[in-house]
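Posting this for the archive.
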Amino acid sequence: ADNYIRSVEIYVGALDPAGEGVPTTTGSTYSEFKGKAVTGYQAAVLRLDQLQQSRADRLQNALALGAVALDRLDANLAQQHFRIAVALRPEDDEAQQGLARSQTLDQVVALTDEAQGQEQLRQWKVAIGYYQQAVELDAHYHPAREGLDRARAAQREEGFRSAMTSLQDALDQRDFSGAQRALDQAGNLKPGAPELEDAKQRLLVEKRQHRLFALRRGGKEAMAREDWTGAVRHYTEALKLDPGAGFARDGLTNAERRLQLQRRLEHYLQQPERLQAERPLANARSLLDHLQALVDLDAGIARAAIGQGDLHLEGVAAVDGRRPRHRVH
């Protein structure tokens, strides 16, 4: 195009009568030269028009050939085509981007190859690092982008499976804090995974069963040491966890009855002089009859009821003209 422009400038100068340096030859006239100049000028203008009209086609052709070279990983050929495209239209984004990609292509391919090798070794963290470098250089290089997504997904899956295994191990060892940590870790890696809901429900059930077992044992031990208040507390909590727990329902009924008897008896034992009155004495007799009925069922209630107040209880029986059928220690 520059050659044609220079030709046009020469011809324009020839057409200017005031111009200098009009070439002449022996036997030629100015009119003859002018005719040739006009003809050459017209040819140059026509050629320039043709070049201008084909610029867009040549740009698209250069871009297409550059893209093909990129796909074939031919960095040198890609650079040649994209340089032509940039020369034709410097402001074209596709041309500038293609040229930049072709200049880093070899490095991007090398990083991607290294990443794929680490991926085969299941070294997800290392592979991800190489893929990230490649993507930072060329975000449009599909093998690097797809590899990065694939390696990250594999890393998450492996971490998820490891967390689920840790959860199972923790449950087997009744380590509920460790199980919760493992469940949280798995949830962060794969939110919404179906396995998470199942694991969550199992953890809740295991924790509840473990707590119920502890409460049942605690209630039984409290009953054995005649700690009726403690037994009531254990069985009440158990019923909150599982309203259908039969052991807790029966244990609570038994513990509350014995706690009530203990409080009534303590009331008389703390004020023995009240037994001189008819109404308190009648109540004491009724309580004594109830205690006598419980003796064969559980010697412990008699010990709790009588305790250090054996002499007072025998006093109640003496006033009534009776002696207990059993002396429970």
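The longest helix spans residues 30-71. The CA atoms of residues 168 and 179 lie 7 Å apart.
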